[in-house]
Amino acid sequence: MAKKLTGFEVKPEEKQNWQSIAMVWIGSMICVPSLMIGGLVGSSMSIGKVIMAILIGYSIICIYMSLIGIQGCDTGLPTAVMASGALGKKGAQYVISSVLAIACIGWFGIQSAVCGTSFSSMLATMTGITIPTWLSSTLWGIIMLVTACYGFKGLKWLNFVAVPLLLIVCGYGVWAAMVQFNGLEVMANYVTPHPMPFVTGISLVVATFAVGGAISSDYCRFAKSRKDVIKSSVLGVLPAGLTMLLIGAVMSIVTGQYDISAVLTAVGVPAIGLVALVLATWTTNVTNAYSGGLSLSNLLGLDESYYKVTTAIAGGIGTLLAALGLLGKFTAFLTLLSALVPALVGVLIADYWLIGKGDPKAFKLREGVFAPGMISFLVGALVACITGGTFASFPSLVAAFPILNMPFFIGPINGIVVSMLLYIAIVKVIPGPNPSYNEN
């Protein structure tokens, strides 16, 4: 098996129970972006459709993250290494690093903007002092970036405060909104002023954890069995994801706002809400900058000793994007992620489960760039973008090339299916290079 020869083998004593792995996913789901996306979807749909969009979106995630996670459990390999089977070593380096860099830098910018906007809004409410949003976003971006580059030993302990505090504030926010705004009646009679297509809502839900699902093997390779992978994936994502997005949706429907800072201000908890938002965003965003920096290092062929430089570059780009108003392109960013990541996953699933029949002994790691995998990923991502409405945020581009916006079914699913089928078809025609490692 490949895991014996790559240096990533998992020792028996390193195996974890499924509850431990599930807690990793739960911690990832409880964050400000989940509230924002829930609010965005909730402000554009009825509560019934919101629930259906969440269940369908996270079911898609759970299915593919279970398949990727089982592959990691079987082989003992993290996603970045495992992808060498379908993309080749160099292909995996370029694709995985690029996708993760885009995701991490984008999320750093989004969260810096959220923190900056919330800080400006709540500070103005509490003190009357007005700070421009772009300046606040830049300052908080710099603070988070410095922390990521030079470290802050106490930061990891903030998670023990930030996550429970955010849950308490959100729980109070829902209760206060229901009481102050006659929430049950508002929800029963709610008619959205700006309806969102149901499939767009599903795509946005998928985007909340698209990357997490794709890198599930990084953690699930420590699972004791395939069953444990499935249990940790489903129970770690669905309950927490449904809860957080529903909280955001309910607060949005009842208060008429999906800007979480405005919602918390409206229900009368600006000070505590500000602390919870800043802490939760800070702890998450340091990871975004650090992971984005490592992805850039890998993409550029640098070793980890350069992480401070590449982290500074990643965080600097994210901070600039926040100052330039990336938050206004939040939906476009999410639809891009929901197109790129599932298409990549489709190739990995096709290689291991359909070509290799799910047998770890048949799994191959390839050197260089494996053309069938690269072509299938790029075509699948393009199809997902075109059918999922990714280009709709660029009307001038669509006006020039109408073919770039042809909504059909669900973009992420389209990307997965196309990349899978194309990979199988090409592999049957083009013989691949010899595997890099002995399979036995």
TrEMBL record:
Its main location: membrane. It is a multi-pass membrane protein. It holds the Pfam family Transp_cyt_pur. Belongs to the purine-cytosine permease (2.A.39) family. Gene3D superfamilies: Hydantoin permease (1.10.4160.10). Keywords: Membrane, Transmembrane, Transmembrane helix. It is found in: Membrane. This is Cytosine permease. It comes from the Bacteria. The chain crosses the membrane at residues 21-41, 47-70, 91-110, 122-150, 157-178, 198-220, 232-254, 260-284, 305-327, 333-354, 375-403, 409-430.
